[in-house]
Design brief:
241 residues, alpha/beta, Rossmann fold, 2 domains, 6-stranded mixed beta sheet, BCAA_Transport_ATP-bd_LivF, ABC_transporter-like_CS, ATP-binding
Length: 241
């Protein structure tokens, strides 16, 4: 098993009066793709936001590459090499695709080789380079959101439900893109409801319920065990769903 790049130990997060995360223990191995699964309301998005410092943990440790980042400001966490793609994608709809990408490259002009690589991942972005982001389809917007997150090299990519509401053909395109990202040795923590996507790209998996991680292991093992899927996720899942 690769060394963990990210480790959460006993993380609690409160949002107002609500105690959302109730002792999350989570390990994300370096260089792989970890799926974070669970029912709606289990605490998956809160976990990503707590890692990114958008919501501050009230207790526990968030350790990235051996250093504690819990309690740091979001901008400082991003400087450690962590990117976050929220469910709402966080795009500037009135700006062009190009302008969105320029803003994401905070260290200066984008490296042309890296931009060519991103265009290979998401060819539609080259086609619509000078169009406003608001004119893109839902799938194209999701591609732009991910492209923004990797405009510069990142050590860890956090992605929240990238396939939500997308057509199956777009889901397949995103699967190929994430497989390519894995080959680039980018470590990814991915929240997803599409079990076909999870099976296709996941190396390891953590399943959340009621603010805790209740299962961890290989994604392939969960994919093969329908009884375990039923117990953990409350659904009879298959790879076509």
């Amino acid at each position: 098993m690769p060394e963990p790049l990210l480790h959460l130990e006993g993380v609690h997060t409160h949002i107002g009066q609500y105690h959302i995360l109730q002792g999350v223990d989570l390990t994300v191995p370096a260089g792989g793709l970890t799926m974070l699964l669970g029912r709606n309301g289990a605490g998956k998005t809160t976990t990503l936001r707590s890692i990114m410092g958008l919501w501050q943990p009230s207790q526990g440790k968030v350790v990235f590459d051996g250093a504690e980042i819990g309690g740091m400001a979001t901008a400082d966490i991003a400087r450690q090499g962590i990117s976050y793609v929220p469910e709402n994608m966080g795009l500037f709809s009135n700006l062009t695709v190009q302008e969105n990408m320029v803003l994401a490259a905070r260290k200066g002009p984008m490296d042309e080789a890296r931009l060519d690589w991103i265009f290979q991942l998401f060819p539609a972005l080259r086609k619509f380079w000078r169009l406003p982001a608001g004119n893109l389809s839902g799938g194209q917007k999701q591609m732009l959101a991910i492209a923004r997150a990797i405009a510069e090299p990142r050590r860890l990519l956090l992605v929240d439900e990238p396939t939500k509401g997308l057509a199956p053909s777009i889901v397949e395109a995103l699967i190929e893109a994430f497989l390519d990202l894995k080959r680039s040795e980018t470590t990814i923590l991915l929240v997803e409801q599409n079990f076909h996507m999870a099976c296709a790209v996941g190396d390891s998996v953590a399943v959340m319920d009621d603010g805790r991680v209740v299962h961890g292991g290989a994604m392939a093992e969960l994919a093969e065990d329908e009884a375990l899927q039923q117990r953990l996720l409350g659904l009879s899942l298959d790879t076509e769903s």
